[in-house]
């Protein structure tokens, strides 16, 4: 079973359609059961779309890596403070 912290690590790949079929099914099953992760994916998708809409080219890979790390850290901190896995 996919855990919230696992989803955070592959969320960008999920949104970009880069997961295997099995991973994609695991994410979808988790999202059916986890409101917080549905919100997280929705926010990440909206942020990604906003960046694409306001960018003239491909985002800086280093910037994207730092954003991914911070989002993951924030989700982990939130989950820890709210007693969720």
Description:
- With 85 residues, this protein is mostly helical.
- It has one domain (4-81).
- It has 4 helices and no strands.
- It is globular, with a radius of gyration of 13 Å.
In brief, what are we looking at here?
The chain has helices spanning 4-15, 21-33, 35-53, 61-81.
Number of E-type strands: 0
Instruction: Report how far apart the termini are.
Output: 12 Å
Nearest-angstrom radius of gyration?
13 Å
Mean pLDDT: 89
Give the overall silhouette.
globular
Instruction: List the total number of helices.
Output: 4
Element-level helix/strand string = HHHH
Low-confidence stretches: none
Name the beta content range.
Answer: under 5%
Using brief descriptors, characterize the structure shown.
single chain, 85 residues, mainly alpha, 4 helices, 76% helix, metal-binding
């Amino acid at each position: 079973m996919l855990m919230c912290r696992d989803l955070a690590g592959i969320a960008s790949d999920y949104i970009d359609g880069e997961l295997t079929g099995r991973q994609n099914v695991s994410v979808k099953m988790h999202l059916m059961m986890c409101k917080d992760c549905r919100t997280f994916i929705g926010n990440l998708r909206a942020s990604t779309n906003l960046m694409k809409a306001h960018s003239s080219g491909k985002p800086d890979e280093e910037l994207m890596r730092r954003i991914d790390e911070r989002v993951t850290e924030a989700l982990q901190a939130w989950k820890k403070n709210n007693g969720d896995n």
